[in-house]
Write a structure and sequence with these properties.
Number of domains: 1
Helix content: 25-40%
Radius of gyration: 19 Å
Shape: globular
Strand content: 5-15%
CATH class: Alpha Beta
CATH architecture: Alpha-Beta Barrel
Structural class: alpha/beta
Strand order of the largest sheet: 3-4-5-8-9-10-11
Number of strands: 11
CATH superfamily: NADP-dependent oxidoreductase domain
Amino acid sequence: MTSTGTSSSHLTPDGTPRPGGAGLLAGRTVSRIGYGAMQLERLHTDRDAAVALVRRAVELGVDHFDTAQFYGNGFVNEVLREALSATDDAVVVSKVGADPDPGRPIPLRPAQRPEDLRASVEDNLKSLGTDRLAIVNLRRLDTGPGLRAEGDQVVDLDDQLAAMTQMRDEGKIGAIGLSSVNADGLRRALPAGIVCVQNAYSVVSRDDEDMLALCSAEGIAWVPYFPLGGAFPDMPKVTDEPAVHAVAQSLGGTPAQVGLAWLLHHAPNVLLIPGTADAGHLDANIAVGGLALDEASLAALDAVQSRSADVRLG
């Protein structure tokens, strides 16, 4: 069992304070507040602005970036390739399990078969300009919001993990993570050496609490996506929760900052990857690391989930 406590190093190698403090990801010390790069595709007509935003994140101490070839059909990976240098020593986490499908309402199509996973890894390697991906998350399609697999895209997890571990053995992948996985899948995958899990999770949507606890016990980073909820019609929004607003008012932060700060306080293995295409929002996300939640605030926020569950079940 591996400890999930934060590292004692709260400074990046160049002396910049780590946003949110220090955490562990695949054995590496990283800042607990990273950057989810998906929103960079909104800047596809202003590549220079996209590159500048990534550089700004690095200047603020971010050294953990989440991306995928299917974000902007390769555009996001290309921006990261241009913006990041070897001296930044950043951990770039990619994702496979879907492919770009431009022009569709959801511009993605499932890519779950082992041969699809291998092709996606090769695409990520090419667009990121590297011969090894530090971490690759396998995006399952049998749970969570968004795409669902059908037909020959319904693939057993063991077959997918066999392909992923083979690519790790070949040196194309450094470590394996999971995204949108259920509890049974996570337990089945543990022998493969999973280093992180990305599931939809927030202060108002905590159905995966047992999985978070399992990850904490196993030394696996918990990297919630949609940390403020609200991305789909049936997904509650953190910023609609009165208790979140009350805490934000008392602490002088925004409701979004409080929602992110709660995640950092909730478990030591939580790493955040909030995304934005706006420099001001980036600064606000980084500032979450300095937002201290007192016992009363934490108690009020911890009580939110039970009320949300009552509403769903009522």
